[in-house]
Amino acid sequence: MNPARSVAVVSAVLVLSACATARRAGPQGISGVRLAVARDLVDRRQYGDALAAIQAIHETDGRSAQTLTLRSFAYRGQGLTADAEEDLREALRLDRDHAPAHAAIAVLHDEAKRWADGEEHHRRATALDPTNASYLSDWGWALHLQGRTQDALARLQAAIRLDPLPPRYHNNLGFAYARAGDFTRAAQRFAVGGAPAEAKNNLGYAYELAGNLPQAFEAYSEAVRLAPGFSRARANLEEVARKLNRSPPPEGARPEKVPSGRMQ
Predict the structure, then answer these.
(1) What does the pLDDT look like over 101-148, one tens digit per residue?
(2) Domains of the chain
(3) CA–CA dist 11, 161 (Å, integer)
(4) DSSP code of residue 256
(5) Closest C-alpha to 122, from 82, 152, 94
(6) Contact (Cβ atoms closer than 8 angstroms) between residue 74 and residue 47
(7) Within a 10 A sphere around the Cβ of 30, how many other Cβ atoms?
(8) 217-230 pLDDT per residue, tens
(9) What span, in angstroms and rounded, lies between the C-alpha atoms of 54 and 36?
(10) Is residue 140 classed exposed, middle or buried when 0-12, 13-18 and 19+ CB atoms within 10 A define those classes?
């Protein structure tokens, strides 16, 4: 099927499904169904369609902290961070206790290295929703980036106790353990957080950040042995090999699928 047609079909199916559900839900349920459709579009990274869906909600029901926060995700997905931040500020003017808006604007502050502003909103988000593992993991990662390792470990460990499933939480904790010098625990977390080759690549990167290039070389070598087509691990290996004045292992046969190499 043509990709453009497949996107249109998916959107049409979502809209038709929403209409059918709305008829069953009655007038009070229609807004919730439309918001669910918009949220699904954001999750699918169909940001243009999501913005159109949210605009339709605004035209009939007005703006709310919930819809503005959702629209900020679509804007951020399009790289429009200033628009995203403006929406989040408006969301908090409408509802200063909207935890998702606090969490989202905290991440925007972190990306701009406005650490104090970010921490204020991380703290507020987790106070409003203390069992939200994502909020704790994001806060812990921000603390890790600032070099506040023990504070980072506390939040990242708490996130995994609340929800042990997302790989991102384990990878974030793995890098924090490595920063603390505990590479055994770091390796264990990376092993949970991704495919074997990806785990070795993350371990190699952690060693590289710590300045241990020989160990980084070994970990990257194992990553490309496990997944010869893993381009990020190959690039990392060649860079470390150059610094060590060593020859990297030759490239092997490429498998059909390789890991993404994402650290978070």
Answers:
(1) 999 999 999 999 999 999 999 999 999 999 999 999 999 999 999 999
(2) 32-104 (1.25.40.10)
(3) 37
(4) S
(5) 152
(6) yes
(7) 18
(8) 999 999 999 999 99
(9) 10
(10) buried
Residue 194 is classified by DSSP as S
Using an 8 Å Cβ cutoff, are 136 and 123 in contact?
Answer: no
Instruction: Kindly report, residue by residue over 57-110, the tens digit of the pLDDT.
Output: 999 999 999 999 999 999 999 999 999 999 999 999 999 999 999 999 999 999
- The owner of tokens 């989202």 is 104
Neighbours of 164 (CB within 10 A): 11
pLDDT confidence tier of residue 30, bands split at 50, 70 and 90: low
Say if CB 233 and CB 261 are below 8 A apart: yes
Structure tokens at 40: 């699904």
Helix axes 99-111, 81-94, angle to 10 degrees: 150
Which single residue is written with the structure tokens 């008829």?
A: 23
Distance, CA of 160 to CA of 150 (rounded, Å):
16
Task: Determine the pLDDT at residue 29.
Answer: 57
Residue type, position 64, single letter:
S
- Would you state the structure tokens that stand for residue 243, as one six-digit string? 């610094």
